[in-house]
Amino acid sequence: MKMKWALLASLTALAAILAGCEPLLVLDPKGPQAARQASDIMLSIFIMSGIVIAVLVILVVILFKYRASKQPADYEPPHIEGNIWVEAICVGIPVIIVAFLSFVSVKSNYIVESAPVGYEDQEPLVVYASSSDWKWHFSYPEEGIETVNYLYIPTDRPLEFKLYSYGPITSFWIPQLGGQKYAMADMVTTLHLAADEPGEYWGRNANFSGKGFAENTFNVTAMSQKDFDEWVEEVHETADPITEEEFNKLLEPGHLGQMTFTGTHLDFSPAPEHNHDSEADETETETETNQDDHSSHEESKHSGH
C-alpha cells in the first residue's frame, strides 16, 4: 500500500512540474515548413510510444506466464520448437517501421527543401544571412538594408535565405519557422521558409562555434507586408550607410546589440558564390584570350606561307 501511494505521489508531482514548462518551440509552428517538421516529430513520438507500450505489455505477460513456480526438483520443462509466425512478426514489424519512417523522412526532406507549400507562385524575399563570431548579419539586397542580430520579415510571403559564414561553421535556426541549416565559409546554402502569422520569434546559431556560442542569437519579427514596407522606408530615412571599415569592425570576435544600416556589405564583400562566379568569369576570359592568341598565331603562320 505504501508503494502504491508513493508511486501516485511521484506521478502527481511529475505532472505538476511538467505543467509549468513552456511548450517546445518546434511543436508550436508558425510556418508551413515548421508545421511539416512538427507533424513528423509527433508521428515519430506516437510510433515510438506504441512500440514502448507494446514491449512493456509483452514483458509483463512473459514475467507472469513464465514466472518461477513450485515444481518438483526433477521437473524438466517441455522442449518448444521455434514459431515461424513469432519470428516473422519480430523481424517484419521493425523492418516495416524503419521503411515507413524512411519514406516519410525522404518525402518531407524534398518538401522542406523546396519553396513553402502554398507560396510556389510568389516572388520570395531574398535575405543573405551571414555569421561571424558571435553575431548574425542580415542583408536585404533588394531593399538596400542590412541589420545585425535582428530580422524583420513579411508574413504570407516566401523567404529565401542565403547562408554563409565569415568564421567557423554555424547553423541558422528559427525553430518556429523551420529546421536548421549550416552556414559555411566557402559556399552558400539556401534555406526556404515562410511565416504564416505575425509575431516575435527567436533564432540562434545551433552549432557550437566557440566560447561565445551560447549568446549567438537573434530576434525575428514577422509583420504584414505593409508594415514591412513602412519599416524599409523608415530605415532609409534614419539609418547610416554601412561602410567597409565599419563592417570589418563588426567581424571582430565579440557580442553586439541590434544595429541597422542602409546599403549592404555585399557591395564590397560579396557572398562566396559571387567570388566563385568571379573566378569562373576570370578563368573563362583568360581561356578565351589564350584561344584568340593561338588563333592569331596560326593565322600569322598561314599568312607567312
Explain what the structure shows.
The chain has 305 residues and is of the alpha+beta class. The protein folds into 2 domains: 26-66 and 83-113; 125-267, Cupredoxins -  blue copper proteins (Immunoglobulin-like, Sandwich), CATH 2.60.40. It is built from 6 helices and 12 strands. The strands form 2 sheets. Strands 8-5-1-2-3-12-11 form a 7-stranded mixed beta sheet. A 5-stranded mixed beta sheet has the order 4-10-9-6-7. Strand 11 (240-241), helix 5 (244-250) and strand 12 form a beta-alpha-beta unit. Helix 2 (32-65) runs antiparallel to helix 3 (84-112). It is elongated and about 95 Å long. The termini are far apart. Residues 274-291 and 294-305 have low confidence and may be disordered.
